[in-house]
Design a protein that fits this description.
6 strands; four-stranded mixed beta sheet; two-stranded antiparallel ribbon; 105 residues; alpha/beta; 2 helices
Length: 105
C-alpha cells in the first residue's frame, strides 16, 4: 500500500534488476494511477488486483477503484456512505470547483 509514485519507483527498481515480487493485492492512494503504471505494477508484482482508494483525514476513505477502473478517472462511491456536491468556482458551467463531502454515519 502506498502512493502511486513510490509504488512505481519501487517497481522500476525491481524491473531494472530483472526481479519480480508476487503480491496478492496492491492498494494505492494519494495520486491517480495511469494505465501504463498499472501495467508496470501488474507485471512486476504479478497481480491484476490493484485497487485505488480516495478520501481524506477528515472523512476517511469513501471512494475506491478496482482492477476494472484502476488507471482511469472512475471511482466507486456508495451513496449510503457519503453525499457529494460540487460547488463550481464561478457561476459559469465549469468542470472545476470545491468538492463538498458529507459523511452519512
Amino acid at each position: 500500500m502506498g502512493p502511486t509514485r513510490r509504488l512505481t519507483d519501487f517497481a522500476l527498481f525491481l524491473k531494472n534488476k530483472n526481479e519480480t515480487i508476487p503480491l496478492t493485492n496492491i492498494i494505492f492512494a494519494a495520486e491517480p494511477l495511469q494505465k501504463s503504471k498499472f501495467n508496470l505494477l501488474s507485471k512486476v508484482f504479478q497481480t491484476r488486483n490493484i485497487v485505488g482508494i480516495y478520501g481524506s483525514s477528515e472523512t476517511g476513505v469513501w471512494a475506491y477503484q478496482d482492477e476494472n477502473t484502476a488507471g482511469s478517472n472512475i471511482y466507486y462511491c456508495h451513496s449510503n456512505m457519503v453525499h457529494l456536491e460540487i460547488e463550481p468556482f464561478d457561476s459559469k458551467e465549469s468542470d472545476t470547483g470545491n468538492l463538498i463531502v458529507t459523511v452519512c454515519t
